[in-house]
Amino acid sequence: MAVKPIRLFGDPVLRTPADPVKDFDKELRALVKDLSDTMLEAPGVGLAAPQLGVGLRVFTYYVDDVLGHVVNPTLKLSDDEEEGDEGCLSLPGLVFQAKRAVGVVAKGFNMYGEPIVVEGTHLMARCVQHETDHLDGIIFVDRLDAEQRKAAMKAIREAEWFGEPAPIVKDSPHAMFGKAL
């Protein structure tokens, strides 16, 4: 099992847009395994590479007993929106109502470079949008209305984990990605 420390709100890597994956190699497959293991252990329904300190466009998900991943995703969103509870492994213990598209079609690649399509509604759509936001340097609290965002920022500042330093991971197998911190 390759469970890694999850970067917390305030870590600059979470605000940095991730680079597209170019090499579909054993290092990418190791990253997908690390993401999956860490997400399942947390537990969570999604985890993006920047949350492990790796600036690459890849995320994993575990929704409705389906474990998967998407590399270099592009999204097509439904016009219908819904509000729902949303949390984040990088903001542990905090949940707020966030508006998201009800449906999503995500196109991208698997870890072997083969084209894939992930379609979903409700929780799957929310997860895919949330994780793709991470790849763009966006955190879900950025999408809250002004009142909710103010409450979220207050809760973040009061959280016991706020201001904790990023973990130092020596000899990270992802150091070769150039953005592992």
From TrEMBL:
EC class name: hydrolase
Tree of life domain: Bacteria
Residues annotated as the enzyme's active site: E131
Pfam families with a match to the protein in the record: Pep_deformylase
Keywords recorded for this protein, A-Z: Hydrolase, Iron, Metal-binding, Protein biosynthesis
A GO molecular function held by the record: peptide deformylase activity
Catalytically driven reaction(s): N-terminal N-formyl-L-methionyl-[peptide] + H2O = N-terminal L-methionyl-[peptide] + formate
InterPro entries with a match to the protein in the record: Peptide_deformylase, Peptide_deformylase_sf
GO biological process, one term: translation
Cofactor: Fe(2+)
Binding-site list for Fe cation: C88, H130, H134
Gene3D superfamilies: Peptide deformylase
Family from the record: Belongs to the polypeptide deformylase family.
Name this protein carries in UniProt: Peptide deformylase
Biological classification of the source: Bacteria, Bacillati, Actinomycetota, Actinomycetes, Streptosporangiales
